Amino acid sequence: MLAPHTRKAVVLLSGGLDSSTVVAMAQAEGFEIHALTVIYGQRHEVEIQAAKLVAKALRVSAHKFVSVDLNQIGGSALTSDIEVPKDRTEAQMTSEIPVTYVPARNTIMLSLALAYAEVVGSNDIFVGVNAVDYSGYPDCRPEFVAAFEALSRVATKAAAEGESMTIHAPLINMTKAEIIEVGQGLGVDYSLTHSCYDPIKSRACGRCDSCQIRNNAFASLGLFDPALAHL
């Protein structure tokens, strides 16, 4: 049972490895978790079901779903009819911003989290962005997180009344392997998570950038990625 004075935190939960770890990390800091999952028209919508499983397993206080149809904007292999890259080398992954980048996705998601935080009375938002492991996404950089935090401190009723919002990005400078180690120490069940960009019948393809990054991290720790047990 949480103490009455426990602080509330809004945590963006996609159902992937990173965001699931962040939920556990925020809990370990004593926060009451209000998870927020954004349904944005992603082709890998199986992650939404994974988010439900993770939220239940970690016993979050509340879990809200918000829909924003980014298919209407497109511009990404995750939201439109663009082929998801497969079997790329690390050098290829780091060479440019990948087509799986969703324009302004983290800005949109953090804006929704900011609105939700105001409603539930939270001054803390957690997001699982990560600048290491060659994701190549511009909205996963420390500069972006700092800029959004600055915005959050002037953009809300709470800010006008003297409250100070904090955007927590605890994974920002961690490798995927380090994230897995932290999550295991906190009891995260990674068999419930889903990270694949182009699932086949709700199962990880094992070949997209996300699958390879995740699988390589587990392998570096001498572990097997449970998401690829079917392969």
Key phrases:
single chain; 231 residues; alpha/beta; Rossmann fold; five-stranded parallel sheet; 8 helices; globular
How would you describe this protein?
The chain has 231 residues and is α/β, with parallel strands linked by helices. It has a single domain (8-228), classed as HUPs (Rossmann fold), CATH 3.40.50. 35% of the residues lie in helices and 11% in strands. It is built from eight helices and five strands, in the order βαβαβααβααβαα. It has helices at residues 17-28, 46-57, 90-94, 105-120, 142-152, 157-160, 176-185, 209-220, and strands at residues 8-12, 32-39, 62-67, 124-126, 166-168. The chain has a five-stranded parallel β-sheet, sandwiched between helices. α7 packs across α8 (209-220). The longest helix has 16 residues, at 105-120. The protein is globular, with a radius of gyration of 17 Å. The termini are far apart. Mean pLDDT is 93; it is low at 1-5.
Question: Strand tally, please?
Answer: 5
Secondary-structure arrangement, i.e. CATH architecture: 3-Layer(aba) Sandwich
Query: N-to-C SSE series?
Result: EHEHEHHEHHEHH
Low-confidence stretches: 1-5
Give a quick summary of the entry.
This protein is 35% helix and 11% strand. With 231 residues, the protein is of the alpha/beta class.
Provide the fold topology.
Layout: E1 8-12, H1 17-28, E2 32-39, H2 46-57, E3 62-67, H3 90-94, H4 105-120, E4 124-126, H5 142-152, H6 157-160, E5 166-168, H7 176-185, H8 209-220
Parallel strand pairs: 1-2, 1-4, 2-3, 4-5
Helix pairs in contact: 1-7, 7-8
